[in-house]
Amino acid sequence: MAVREPLKNDSGNLKQMTSAEVTDIVYQTVYQYSLNSSVALSVVGSGGNLDAISDTRLQAGASSTSASSFPSEATTAEPSVVTVNYDRLEQTVASITPTTDTGKTWPAYYTSAGHIQAMSLQDVKDTFLHPAIDLLTSASTTTEQAGTYTIATSTSLAGSTNVDTTPIFSDTRADTSAYTAGGIGETLDQPTTITNYYLHRIDGTDTAFVNPFFINGSNNLQEFATADFQSLLSEWIRYTAAESTDGYKITYNIGTSGSGNTRGTAIVDTRLNGSGNYQTRFVNDDDYRAQEFPNGTPTTQSTYNLRINKS
């Protein structure tokens, strides 16, 4: 690993950047990624290419009728589980062709022998690109993770932009207030939404940095134009995130387990845990009805997380 200290203009003198100034370029690299993420998540109606996650809830058992007496609890159908699968997250990876490293593409630095030479692509990875990916893939959700994604229970999240007002998951439970003895036979599945979960993209903040020098085609030192250096950083951080073969490619997964760092709010599937609320209804001398409604206390069935991984 070779972390370099690029050369800069210090009041007309050639000087090595400080470690803080190198870090400023890493932050600028993150910001450039935030402007055009190469590994993007979107919300689709169904059929997303990330794993499906499941919401479960109880529904009432089928009603029973008799012409002579109320059907016993032992003979009425028990509440059953309804499962709804959500596969609304779609991951898209861009195809990037960055500027070719000519041997003079990147900033210049002093070698240990005091010579001036251009950073190699590996130097650039070690100094700027890989530290930026380390920041982008951490568990935090600050501007240092700009352009990556997190989960929240609201469409509004400070420091982030809502990707879609369609939730990626809805935790539902049986609405016990919707079932009444007077309504037997009640509709079996009468859910209420407890919590919606939404996808957000973390916002970036432009950061100040010092432009380094590079060796131009005439073998002279020249200071990078800001836009040119930003363009280089943008191309190569996008390429690294999408296609790195060094273990710095960004991927996402969702589920109860998986590799990488969890992002944002955990997604919880809850369900009532009762064995059934037996109720009866007398309609007339020839119509006795019984039905078991969902009941119990809410219990967690599964906990899912969105994870960001480098591989």
Describe the overall structure:
It contains 3 helices and 20 strands. It is an alpha+beta fold. It has one domain (7-310). The strands form 8 sheets. Strands 10, 11, 12 and 13 form a 4-stranded antiparallel sheet that branches. Helix 2 (121-136) packs across helix 3 (226-243). The mean pLDDT is 97.
The helix content, as a percent range, equals: 10-25%
Strand content: 35-45%
Largest sheet: 4 strands, antiparallel
Radius of gyration: 29 Å
Tertiary shape: rod-shaped
Classification by helices and strands:
alpha+beta
Count of helix runs: 3
Number of domains: 1
User: Which consecutive residue ranges, at least 5 long each, have pLDDT under 50?
Assistant: none
The termini sit apart by 18 Å
Short description:
The protein has helices at 19-35, 121-136, 226-243; strands at 7-10, 13-16, 39-43, 53-59, 64-66, 80-86, 89-93, 108-110, 116-118, 149-152, 160-162, 169-174, 191-202, 213-215, 221-223, 250-255, 261-272, 277-284, 287-293, 298-310.
